[in-house]
Structures are given as structure tokens and as C-alpha cells.
Amino acid sequence: MIFLESPWPWLVLGIAVEAVLAVALLRTQRGYLLWAMLGTAAFVALGLLVERLVVTEREEVEMTLDAGVAAAKANNLGRLLNCISPKATKARYYAGLVLGRFEVEDARIRDLEITINRLTSPPTAKAKFLAVGKGRDRKNEFPYENYMRTVVVELRREGDRWLVADFDVEDFHPPGR
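-> C-alpha cells emitted (177 positions)
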């Protein structure tokens, strides 16, 4: 699966094989090794193309989270709610509460770990990450502009999309409650 989620395994494999073939070519002076090097380059290029074209479930979950981050950075509640399941009333409520109270200047996801569970019906996923953000409290009651917390998000496959079903934030005390 790692060959479908990142180009680095293809590149490392290709460079290693090409290096071995180059050393062999220099030592033996055999022309057929050039053909092997061209074949290796073509194989790696094909692998890189497949890696780009195939979108894994893990990458789909990551795209949902990235869309949520982009919506938060744009302070766009409608786009953020589009990433949350209509059944996830708690998550939808807090999304509105937080974006209504805070003006987000920057938001990022760090140290993302995604676990997919295909044994549930529908399939579920759990994403754990460090949420890093910067913003301003519209009521000027919260003195800090920077935010950093560990977040665990549960996602559920609904149709052809992964949507947020629930979340848990370390030391989360929502404003106004």
C-alpha cells in the first residue's frame, strides 16, 4: 500500500537499482545494461504514474481533513459543514460555535495518523493529529492567538465520501458552555 500513497518508495527503489546497474555497467562495459537501466526507468515512471492516479482510502480521509482545514482557514462554515456528516449533530454544533466565535487566520494538521476499519458497516476511520492554528476571539475574551491541541476525529464512509462523524479534542472547553 505504501507504493500507492507516496512517490518516495518508487524513487528510492529506482535510484538504488539504477545505481547498482550503473556500477555494473562501468565495471563490465556491457551495453545490455543500458537497456536494463532504461527498463528500470520506465518501470519507475509507470509506478509513479499509478501512484498519482490511484487514490487510496487513507488519501480520501486526508482529503476530507484538508478540505475541513481549508474551510476553517477561509472562515467558511458552509464548506466546513460539507465535511461533516449530517448525522453528526455534536460536530456540526461545535463547528458553528467555534467559527462563530473565532476568526481563524491559519490552521494546519501535523503528525497525522490514520487508521481505516473496513470491518464496520459502513467503513470507519480514525484520524489522530496535532491541530495547530492561529486566530482571534471576536469577543476579545480569549487572550491567546495560537492554538495547539491533539485531536482525534472519527470518520464514516457515506456514499462515496468520508465524512466526520465525531471528534475529541484534548482539553476542549467550548466557549459559551
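The mean pLDDT is 91.
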